[in-house]
Every structure is written in structure tokens, then in C-alpha cells.
Amino acid sequence: MQLLKLNDTIRFMSARKLTMAISALLILASIASMAIRGLNFGLDFTGGTAVEVGFSQPADLAKIRSVLAENDFADASVQLFGSSQDVLVRLAPRGSDVKAETIGNQLIAALKQADSSVEMRRIEFVGPSVGEDLKEQGGLAMLTALICILMYVAFRFEYRFAIGAVAALFHDVIITMGLFSLLDLEFDLTILAAILAVIGYSLNDTIVVSDRIRENFRKVRIDDTIEIINISLTQTLNRTLVTSITTILVLIALFVWGGQTIHGFATALLFGVFIGTYSSVYVASSVAVAMGVSKEDLIPVEVEKEGADLDAMP
Fold first, then answer.
1. Residue 24: pLDDT over 60
2. Which whole-number Å values give the CA distances from 113 to 23, 58, 68, 81, in the listed order?
3. Which residue among 68, 127, 149, 217 is least enclosed by CB atoms within 10 Å?
4. Is pLDDT at 303 greater than 70 in this prediction?
5. CB-based burial label for 144 (10 Å; 0-12, 13-18, 19+)
6. CB atoms within 10 A of CB 188
7. Does the pLDDT at position 290 exceed 80?
8. Which residue pairs from 122-125 have beta carbons closer than 8 angstroms and sit at least 24 positions apart in sequence?
9. Could you tell me where the beta strands, DSSP code E, fall in 136-225?
């Protein structure tokens, strides 16, 4: 095996205390933002009616909000949807006996006071109980994924790496959700799907790094744990960068040209890939180092062959 020279190795772990402090601050800031500002849950989780309408000319959002407030739609959330002529109006639930079509017709009638050219493009309705169920099931999905990952990595490698991998995934999920809370971006089922995809992406990166660390613990004739981890991270750096850059290029295309429907999905994945690459290099490895992983922990124990003691007897 051709070993890296020490001078060729990037000293990733020399910055582990600084990066861990930055990660801790980002996690605390994300938790604080979600506790104070909360998440801007979309219709999937809150329930209600969403109506997409189109205008023949750029929409005046201020005028639309004023007209809706005058027609008993003061709680309406109005925002552009893709272009300056497309508008998405979200309404809170108005009772189980009120049909979505009735609400849509009333909304269109009110909007015609602002612009007679308005036309309905799409209408969706989600009941509040369905939204609560989706919110609960989404949280359980993320929790189940993290527990399964913890069990798999502990079985596949070593429990210190398992805790480091789950810590990295927890880090990625909390900070990504914190970004959506801070920027007040809509959080719906597509964003939840993006976060689950980020978990898979980050885990794949972490597994590759952990596998190389385990291999080098067994083959590299160095007793310094930090140095072996630095060598392993340096060896996997090209693969990590190539994978991340190609993924980011695709996501940028989706972000720019994919349309408003998947804009949030692309945003979550773009940020998630970046933060996931960072966590697989610094968070997972740093947690394993902090827990005292050593060369002896990953060297397989040799089992003596049966009869060896008998053969050794005179």
C-alpha cells in the first residue's frame, strides 16, 4: 500500500475545536429561531385552502390584500408564485362544512374587484386533522431514520462512529430547519422530503469517510489517531468534492429554472448538501475523536485456532 507522506496530508483535525464551536453556535441559533419565530408551515401541515390565480398583467399584491381584507379574507396569505402575474393565496380552514370550490369562487369574485382578468389556475384543500397527522408522521419519519442509522453504523463500524454519524445528521437537519425558520420560507412536505434526502446524502459521505478511517487504522503504521483521520480525510477529499460539486450544479439548475413549485425543495437540498459535506468532514470525525476512538478499537481481534494449545503441549 502506498502511503501518503505526512507533508501531503491536510490537517483537518487541527481546526476541529473551532469548527465544533461554530457548529454549536449554529445549532443554538437554529433552535432559538425555531422556538421564537417558529416554522412557516405550509398548507400540508396547517390545513386550509390554497388557490393559485393568474393575472394578465403584473399583480399588485398590496391592492390584492386590501381587496381580500374588505371581503372577509383578512387572514389570507398572498405571495407571488413563479412570475409577477401568478399569485398564490392561502387561507386558514373555514369549517368542515365549507367546500373548497365555494371558497375558491368567493375568492375569485373578490379578486375581480382588483382586476377583472383574474382566472383560477388551481385550488387545493387540506383538512386541519390531516395536516396535524402529516406533521406528526413527518417527525416520526426523521426520528426513525436517525435511530436506524445509529444501529446500522454501530453494527457496521464502531459505536463511536455511529454516535458521530448521528450527531452529524442531527447537525444537518437542525441547521437546515433553522435556515427556513430564519428566512421565513414555507415548510411543507416537499421540504420534509428534501431534508430526508439530505440525511441520506450526508450519511453516504460519512460512511465513505468512516470506512477509509477504519481501513487506515488497520493498515497505516502510525499510532496517532488524529494523523490517521487527517490522512483518511485527505484521501477521500477528491471524491467528496467531485460528488458535492456535481450535485450542486444540478441543484442550481433546479433552483434557477425549476419553477416556484420546487424552489423550496432545491433551496433545502442546496444548503443541505453544503452543510452535509462540512459535517461529514468535521462533525462526525470530531465527535469520534472527542469520544476517544483509537486504533485498538477498530483492529479485529484474532481468534486462536482450535487445537493450538494441544499442539503446543509436549
1. yes
2. 51, 16, 9, 20
3. 127
4. no
5. exposed
6. 19
7. yes
8. 122/50, 122/51, 122/52, 123/49, 123/50, 123/51, 123/52, 124/43, 124/49, 124/50, 124/100, 125/48, 125/49, 125/50, 125/100
9. 186-187
Of 1, 15, 35, 39, the residue nearest 283 (C-alpha): 15
* 44 touches 131 (CB < 8 A): yes
How far apart, in whole angstroms, are the C-alpha atoms of residue 271 and residue 211?
Answer: 25
Contact 188, 43 (CB under 8 A): yes
Average pLDDT for the chain: 80
List phi, psi (to 5°) of 176: -65, -45
- 208-221 average pLDDT score: 83
Provide the percentage of residues in the chain whose pLDDT is more than 70.
85
pLDDT confidence band for 35 (50 / 70 / 90): very high
The residue with greater pLDDT, 55 or 146, is 55
Q: What three-state secondary structure class fits 188?
A: coil
Q: Are 233 and 285 in contact (CB under 8 A)?
A: yes
| Residue 224, number of CB atoms within 10 A of its CB | 12
**Residue 36 confidence (pLDDT):** 92
CA distances 153 to 161, 282, 283, Å, are 7, 17, 15
Which residues, other chains included, contact 257 with Cβ-Cβ below 8 Å and sequence gap of 6+?
Answer: none
Q: Where do the DSSP E strands lie in the chain?
A: 40-41, 48-54, 77-81, 83-91, 119-126, 186-187
Q: Indicate whether 8 pLDDT > 90.
A: no
Compute φ and ψ for 196, nearest 5 degrees: -65, -35
